[in-house]
């Protein structure tokens, strides 16, 4: 869970510093001329894009509806504007390299090399690995509870946070799935799904941190804690998707929730003297060190691996350790509750 605190924090931070449509690359007059000519002619040098007969917004000028670009093509291949921007960017970067200049950002993003149409292949692969790690952690947690630890007479686990962690596992996998999709294709809908999933996971993680650290077991008390936070997170997601995708406001919301739950877990680890508290500290410190990968934002090496991709890589072992702590906590509480029953 802790790894997702940093993910949400830096995803929000990246929103602010990385998505504004004004960077050194797209301010280059030669780049602008190249894109403008490509959108008119459909060609960059000797490379032409047949689908440029369709405008980038998906509506065909002076053409009937059945001549518009099919939806499956809109997803499978990049639209005219995106292809023009990409090829013009590639040409300008070659010219800059020949003059001894380093890469610059275009429309808020570093110049990545596409692989089979995937925009950031390394980040996609690492997001998928994070998803796999959460699936492995959740599955091993499930097997531990239902097949290795003692169960109640009604075949339910003694661990009183089982359902909460199941939901957390599903939300984590959902968040990493949309992260992979967003890095493969950065469009409006994938951006909103990625940010919404991250915010939903972050808000739920805050609820879970409060419930576990304060040992809230009564259902009515859990509802009282969760209801206002669920209402706030839901309202925030609706605001981002239906009113305005305000990156600055989203950053503030994510930072507050991330810092709050990080402090809760850190303090609880020291106060409770949990036998596996060292795993909590490893994840907290590891997440703090991974922060520098986002602060030190450097161009992608060979057009593939940038600081953000390395940060994704750093969360993989942290995820393994975090799920290991969750399983240790389940074993400890199950043992204590089972002894009380006996």
From TrEMBL:
Which GO cellular component does the record give, naming just one? Answer: endoplasmic reticulum membrane
Q: What does this protein do?
A: Involved in the lipid remodeling steps of GPI-anchor maturation.
> Which PROSITE patterns does the record cross-reference, listed alphabetically?
PROKAR_LIPOPROTEIN
Q: Which UniProt keywords apply?
A: Golgi apparatus, GPI-anchor biosynthesis, Membrane, Signal, Transmembrane, Transmembrane helix
Family under the similarity heading:
Belongs to the PGAP3 family.
State the protein's name.
Answer: Post-GPI attachment to proteins factor 3
Q: Which organism does this record belong to?
A: Actinidia chinensis var. chinensis (Chinese soft-hair kiwi)
Q: Which InterPro entries match?
A: Per1-like
PANTHER family reported for this sequence: PER1-RELATED, POST-GPI ATTACHMENT TO PROTEINS FACTOR 3
């Amino acid at each position: 869970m802790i790894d997702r605190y940093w993910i949400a924090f830096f995803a929000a931070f990246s929103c602010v510093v990385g998505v504004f449509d004004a960077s050194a690359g797209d301010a280059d007059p030669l780049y602008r001329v190249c894109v403008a000519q490509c959108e008119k002619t459909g060609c960059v040098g000797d490379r032409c894009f047949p689908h440029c007969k369709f405008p980038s917004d998906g509506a065909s000028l002076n053409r009937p509806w059945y001549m518009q670009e099919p939806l499956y093509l809109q997803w499978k291949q990049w639209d005219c504007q995106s292809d023009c921007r990409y090829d013009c960017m590639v040409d300008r970067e070659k010219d800059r390299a020949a003059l001894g200049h380093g890469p610059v950002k275009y429309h808020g993003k570093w110049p990545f090399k596409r692989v089979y149409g995937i925009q950031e292949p390394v980040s996609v692969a690492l997001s998928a690995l994070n998803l796999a790690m959460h699936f492995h952690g959740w599955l091993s947690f499930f097997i531990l509870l239902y097949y290795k630890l003692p169960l109640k007479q009604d075949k339910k686990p003694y661990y009183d946070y089982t359902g909460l962690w199941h939901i957390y596992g599903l939300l984590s996998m959902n968040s990493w799935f949309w992260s992979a999709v967003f890095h493969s294709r950065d469009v409006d809908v994938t951006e909103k799904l990625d940010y919404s999933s991250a915010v939903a996971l972050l808000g739920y993680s805050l609820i879970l941190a409060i419930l576990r650290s304060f040992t809230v077991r009564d259902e009515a008390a859990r509802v009282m804690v969760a209801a206002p936070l669920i209402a706030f997170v839901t309202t925030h997601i609706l605001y981002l998707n239906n009113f305005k995708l305000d990156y600055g406001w989203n950053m503030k919301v994510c930072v507050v929730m991330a810092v709050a739950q990080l402090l809760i877990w850190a303090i609880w680890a020291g106060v409770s003297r949990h036998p596996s508290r060292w795993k909590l500290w490893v994840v907290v410190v590891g997440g703090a060190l991974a922060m520098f990968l986002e602060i030190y934002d450097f161009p992608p090496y060979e057009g593939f691996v940038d600081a953000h991709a390395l940060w994704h890589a750093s969360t993989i072992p942290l995820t393994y350790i975090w799920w290991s702590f969750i399983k240790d906590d389940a074993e400890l509480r199950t043992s204590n509750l089972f002894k009380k029953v006996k």
